[in-house]
Specification:
Elements: H1 6-16, E1 20-24, H2 28-41, E2 45-50, H3 51-57, H4 59-71, E3 77-84, H5 87-96, E4 100-103, H6 110-127, E5 131-136, E6 141-143, E7 146-148, H7 158-168, E8 172-175, H8 193-204, E9 212-214, H9 222-230, E10 233-238, H10 240-256, H11 263-285
Parallel strand pairs: 1-2, 1-10, 2-3, 3-4, 4-5, 5-8, 9-10
Antiparallel strand pairs: 6-7
Bound molecules: zinc ion (ZN).
Zinc ion binds near residues 83, 143, 181 and 237.
Length: about 290
């Protein structure tokens, strides 16, 4: 039960009106921390890596650690490749054993986005045991290798969304609705909740077919997150916050304990801080107790 695709657990989430916390990790400590949080909360989990950490750590190494952790965990866990702009790299990660792959061809022209997304869908479905996420419209900010200026970000057209999902066959879908990667500059960012609701209604109004993904979770208030889940978000991505907590916690610890040379101690403090961030989001998203 432990190694799952994102689609399997998101179908249940969409049905039950909660969202799965999808946490971007850059190292083993973070991966263990989010798994511990999810086990503690009895929540289904999506572990994510963007392309750079996946290349740096090695996709085979990541998959091995994921499988080791997931096989002994009493909860379902998915390993997701986030925002790969390369069809080739998507295929390599599918071969390695990732269980969800995101092809982000959202910066391409509409037809090219469809072509590349469908290519990844066909490849992953032929292997089996892998679901695929596609994106339409663009999420502003910086996520690893994907950079989109705020004024260049385009929201997802709901009618195009339906056509995109039909023509590509994607298993889960990320519509751009005004959320952003990185840190929000204002306290109340302009998020188009109604657009998400409309897309959800059009795709899933007569039974859940294609669960929806919300990008750019870092910095959104609890109220925003709850509303996004209400409107149909079934996967909620948190990346930047985990990076900030890792760096701030490490920095604070070293500053306070400059005479100490005990790396294991830093790892423990960081792991605990990351675990708390993940646990907090799991509570907000309503996925606690759902595994
Ligand atoms: Zn994203």
């Amino acid at each position: 039960m432990s190694i799952v695709t994102a689609r399997e657990i998101m179908l249940k989430a969409a049905e039950g009106k909660y969202a799965i916390g999808a946490f971007n990790i850059t190292n083993l400590i973070q991966m263990e921390a989010v798994v511990e949080a999810a086990i503690e909360k009895r929540a289904p989990l999506i572990i994510q890596t963007s392309v750079t950490p996946s290349e740096f750590l090695g996709r085979d190494v990541l998959v091995s650690i994921y499988r080791t952790l997931a096989e002994s965990a009493p909860i379902p866990i998915c390993l997701h490749l986030d925002h790969s702009t390369s069809v080739d790299y998507c295929q390599q990660c599918a071969d390695a054993g990732y269980t969800n792959i995101m092809i982000d061809a959202s910066k391409q022209a509409y037809d090219e986005n469809i072509r590349q997304t469908k290519q990844v869908v066909d490849y992953c479905h032929a292997i089996g045991g892998i679901s695929v996420e596609g994106e339409l419209g663009t999420v502003s900010g910086v996520e690893d290798q994907v950079k989109v200026a705020e004024d260049k970000a385009a929201l997802c057209n709901p009618h195009q969304a339906v056509e995109f999902v039909e023509r590509t066959g994607v298993d889960i879908f990320a519509p751009a609705i005004g959320t952003a990667h990185g840190v929000y500059k204002t306290k109340n960012p302009k998020v188009d909740f109604e657009r998400l609701g409309q897309i959800n209604q059009m795709l899933n109004g007569k039974g859940i077919k294609t669960p929806l993904v919300v990008h750019g979770g870092t910095g959104l208030s609890k109220e925003y997150a709850i509303k996004l889940v209400e409107m149909g978000g079934a996967k909620f991505n948190v990346s930047t916050e985990l990076k900030h907590v890792l760096i701030d916690t490490t920095c604070d610890y070293i500053t306070e304990n400059r005479e100490q040379y005990n790396p294991g101690k830093i790892d423990m403090v960081v792991k605990d801080a990351i675990r708390q961030v993940a646990a907090r989001w799991i509570d907000i998203l309503g996925s606690a107790g759902k595994a």
